[in-house]
Structure formats: structure tokens, C-alpha cells
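Consider the following input, taken from an annotated entry for Putative gluconeogenesis factor (Segniliparus rugosus).
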Amino acid sequence: MARHAHAAPEPAARRLAVTALGGGHGLYATLSAVRRLTSDVTAVVTVADDGGSSGRLRHELDVIPPGDLRMALVALAPDDGESGVWAQVLQHRFGGVGALAGHPVGNLLLAGLAEVLGDPVRALDAMVRTFGIQGRVLPMSTVPLHIEAEVSGIEEDPRLIRRIRGQVAVATTPGKVRRVRLLPMEPPACAEAVDAILRADMVVLGPGSWFSSVIPHVLVPQQLRALTATAARKVLVLNLAPEPGETAGFSTERHLHVLSQHAPGLTVDHIVVDAASVQDGMEREQLARAAARFGARPTFAQVAIPGTHQHDPKALAGALVELIGQEDGV
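Applying the prediction step yields:
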């Protein structure tokens, strides 16, 4: 519908351009928060998933894994009326025991559109238009990627390092992940994702599976250069707790340390930490020292749903608004 000439201007917060980087449930939480602040949201999504429906489709059709992209689309979809029904349809998984069992409808639609249109970005944009999604969803890279990790603690000798490949293997390893890389090495970035980072007012990285959804974003050279060059306020949102498998036993400080190892020159403006997840005293002091490597200091806020390890979208949105106010002198 055309805008009337006398219509009031959109509130300033609605014009905020936010680009959120991540994957899976962590990115879903971020998008559920930032959509409360603005309609100008771009999600940049990891494309290394090799499990479940995504893994089957990438191996059978040679497409980028659609699962995390689908979740990002649903996070930005209207949740009421007919649009809400379509969001449920995109998430619906087929039952039974046949070839379709376990596939979400949205994964199949994305894979089919990518084949018809010959371009995953055009396929995602078509989904946005068709389902009235507020924002844009883009892949981190236009080719499917693999994660390879150096892991210790698998062999009897804890000093021995083994390489394991695949996002599922990394996420569930009984060993201790030391470092990850992407295959192919130095993969091509999605040009539209790079542009979204450069034009953003705020870039949000995390939360999410640290080695398989967060760190991969700094392993795409062109995307890392954009993160370094952007004038946007950069916000790192930390996880609420270590994840079984890849970050078991990690302190909050350790999460920052391994990120800085993978991207030594990366700086951020703010690091959002759930106040209940880090105790006062020495633990917060150590975290502050780790944050200083990024040129930032932590912001402690109540951002978890009480009694869970899930971010509360409303609380996280409130924490981000506070950061915007600090920068603007509000």
C-alpha cells in the first residue's frame, strides 16, 4: 500500500539497520529480539550443517544446507493470522518412515527454489516476498561448507590432537575442541551479506554453538574484513552456559579467548553477558580482561528466561536498546 504524503515519519528506532550473524537456535533468539527494534533486519547464516534434513539435502542435491536459513526466515515471519499459519507450515516436519520423513516443509521449498532460480540468494528473497517476512535472510557463503576441528582428549594421551570433520561431529565430540577451520579454505563470502554488514547501524554476533555457529563467521576472509571495516556498533552476545560437547567446561572468559584466537584483530563495542551466568568478583574481573582484547567491556543484564538456558527475546531487545542509548547519549 502506498504511503500517504501526510503520514508521520517512522520512529527512529524503526529505521535502525541491524545485521545479525549466527546460526540455529542462537540466531533465532537474536532475530526474535532485534525484530522488536526495527523492520530493517538482515540475518547472515552459517551454511555448514551436515546433519538431519539439511545434511540429507546438501548431499543429495548439492545445495547449501537450508535448515538454519529456514529457522531465520521463521524468526522474522509475522506470527499472527494467516502469516502465522504459514510460519508453522515452514517448520512442519513430515512424519512417517518414507523418503520425506523428517524433512521440514521450508527446507524442501528452499531447496526447490534454489534449483529453479539457480541462486540461493534469489531463493531466499523469493521466500521473503511470498511469506511477508520482515527483513532479509542471507547465507554466510554461497557454497556449502564443512567444519574441521582440532580436538584433544579423545585418545588416551591427552596431548594427542585429532582432526574431526562435520558440524554434527564437532558439536557432539567427547573431546576438547581447540581450533576450527572451514573447508574449503577461505570460502567465498555472500556479496549481499558483506554489503549488509557494511551498511548496518548495529551488527550482532552470537549467541549460538560457539565453534559451529559463531566462530565460522570470522573464518570467511571477506566477511571478516567487512566486520573490521564497518562503522556499525558491534555487539557480541555470549551464551548462557557451556554446551555439552564442543564447549563443555568452558568459562565465559574461555569463550572470548577462543574467539580472539580465531580472529586476533577483531574488535567489538559491546559484549552482552547474562548477569546471572557470571558471579561477582574474580569471575567478572577475568571476563573484563578477556573483553579488553576486543576493545570492549562487558554489559551485564538479565537476558535469560528464568530457570532456562534460553535467551528472553524481550529482555535481550531491552539490553540492545540500552546500548543504543549509551552510544547516542540518551
